[in-house]
Amino acid sequence: MSIERVRRHIDEHREEALDMLKDLVRQPSVSAQDKGVKECAQVLADLLRRLGIAAEILPTATQPIVFGEIVRDAAAYTLLCYGHYDVQPPEPLDLWQTPPFEPAVRDGRLYGRGTGDNKGQLIAHVLAAHAWLEAAGGPPINLKFVFEGEEESGSPSLAGFIRGQKSRLAADLVYISDGGLHPSGAPTISLGNRGILGLTLVARGADRDNHSGNKGGVAPNPVWMLVHLLSSMVDPTGRVLIEGFYDHVRPIGATEQRLLATMDYDPKAFAATMGLETLPMDGPTYWTRIMLEPYCNINGFLSGYVGPGSKTIIPSTAECRLDIRLVVDQTTADILTKVRRHVAKVDPRVQVLARGFGTMEASRTAPEHPAVGVIADAIRRCRGVAPAIDLASGGSLPNAVWPSVLGVDHIGVPYANADENNHSPNENLSLDRFYDGIHVSAEVFRALGDAAARGALPRRAAR
Ligand SMILES: [Zn+2]
Asked: Which tens digits make up the pLDDT trace of 106-117?
């Protein structure tokens, strides 16, 4: 059977695979500092070509995208693998045991900036494709690779790039490997993420601080303005009171209910990771709140005087920062309009400033999507355990571009060890996880090919 030959090829070429990852890690590619990114695109494109994959470097307004493909029959099922070859800044350098761009193996791990996030994970797909080419004449599905060079800087050009290259990127599913496994080492399938809308509310009173005795009751107090406004926005249980806020929130379906009930939960242990004694809720409530419900958070409040002694003033300004976490089908534009309308009604003196940076849309693939079960089976065959299904991460990621711009669902399967130290000194990728990742990709390609041949997978609309 071809998968046996593919597996053997992967096992017999571990050293070469590791050397290729080292070459990639050796080339710095820090998008935040524009250091070596374009050179890294070149290294990566050359690597793809050496592995028999047609590759091009496609420019964007900012950093280039490395695009590769293996397409034998344009009508066949097509998987688009997305990853990013840029890395976080390596600083502080003195905390690294070995230099960040000099890959080094210690205790079964490869150390270096970008080993886990995301170079080791993206080339796992490439190496799996190569194994299929060498051992079986080619993968059982079409493969497209989109590797961007500025994910760590908020992917400013990705949506525009996809919009401009829609026919070239046409695919049936987007597959993403980023982040780590569960700390137990158990595999996970990740179906989406919450969005985020960052806002600043500014209230102004007089043009200077005033004496709170001499002017108290006469001069307006901007702190009270914000306190009243905020309490009109969210009730004490956390329910958002802004009109229409929940209009587009998707009801929780039967499959989601079932998955929520099986999710790992330990109120004491989970509370400890947050610095709390315990959590006063059950598992399904905990996971529903994090994955499937929006939340309006106050992350900063600045006004008046809280230094030593006292200063009896009516402050002249008050400022409050919010991050509103949104769920799939809520959009940042719609929620921003609703917040502005609410503020205009309750206290038009308060200014609403939207912070563009860091704003991201929510996105979530339904757990009933047939590819979820197919990929879960593939992972089980490789790793010997069924993966946990993560309906969505509470945090925000740029996944929404796939359904909203390309019109394709996305499924994530992280390959790195949980303690990969991504974004931190001594980033590393366990060699076992790296080789497992290549096997998982190879098996996923096969499983999708089989399922597509049975007509068991949804296909993109006719081109
Ligand atoms: Zn990262």
From this structure: 999 999 999 999
pLDDT, tens only, 137-171: 999 999 999 999 999 998 999 999 999 999 999 99
DSSP state of 289: I
At 356-374, the pLDDT tens digits run 666 899 999 999 999 999 9
Rounded distance from Cα 347 to ligand 1 centre (Å) = 40
**Sign for the pseudo-dihedral over CA of 177, 181, 185, 191:** negative
Q: Which domains does the chain have, with CATH numbers?
A: 2-193+362-453 (3.40.630.10), 195-249+293-360 (3.30.70.360)
Ligand 1 centroid, distance to 152 Cα (angstroms)? 6
Burial of 301 (0-12, 13-18, 19+ CB in 10 A): middle
User: Ligand 1 centre and the CA of 450: distance in Å?
Assistant: 33
Distance from residue 88's CA to the centre of ligand 1 (Å): 7
% the chain with pLDDT above 90: 93
User: CA–CA distance from 275 to each of 378, 393, 419 (Å)?
Assistant: 37, 20, 20
Cα 305 to Cα 314: distance, rounded to the nearest angstrom = 10
Task: Report how far ligand 1's centroid is from the alpha carbon of 423 (Å).
Answer: 6
One-letter amino acid of 367: P
